[in-house]
Amino acid sequence: MTVKGIIIKENIVGEGDKYITLFTHELGQIQISALKSTNYKFCSVTQLFVYGIFEISKIYSRYKLINVEIITTFYKIREDILTLSYAMYIMDFLLEVTKESLRQSDLFQLTLYTLHELTKSNPSLKLIRCIYELRAMRCLGFMPNTQDCTQCGNAIGELDMTKKYYFSVADGGYTCCSSSKHRLRYDTIHTIRHILNSDYNHLYKFELLPEIYNELASFVIQYTVYHIEKSFRTLSFIREIERILLI
Ligand SMILES: [Zn+2]
Which of 135, 82, 128 is CA-nearest to residue 106? Predict the structure, then answer.
């Protein structure tokens, strides 16, 4: 059989036996063996981030790689350590949220658009992470409510530029019934709505004032941690590099 997939993990076991984990369009997350005897021909085509058409066979419950036709390797991601680290975080994130036999076409498309965005020159890495996480929340069924109060159901109504609105991470979005740490402005709510609803072609095509980015990032990062319940080592690594580079 053939599947379209992105390599989200590569693993060498023993004396060169290689396993790759794919996030596939058709079968969700699957692990495939590319055994030593055939490894030499798969070395370069079974690297992290490779997006391609994978010919595989299933023997009992295990998948074996037969052939790969590369669509893209996203090689430009590897030219900058920080860009590479953010891309690796996205792979870690996918390892956590994708499952075998669970088709997640929307998340698959989002990931391809995001990896492509990371190949551009001078990508806004922090903003890309924020956008990816928030849109992924929608793909995973955790879309925050930006229209009605999550407690009493009252509509948020026409947004007022002079007002600030409370958003609750635990309640899943806008609230008029209680105050919360996340007091968001008109522009921030518009940005959240854009990220949640834009088509992928336009998803990354905007810039933000620093104060709006800070509000957005504070909300999105906490919202993601709350719903995914996992701390990622790649994020600690990114924080460390950014601390050293004073970013
Ligand atoms: Zn309310």
Answer: 135
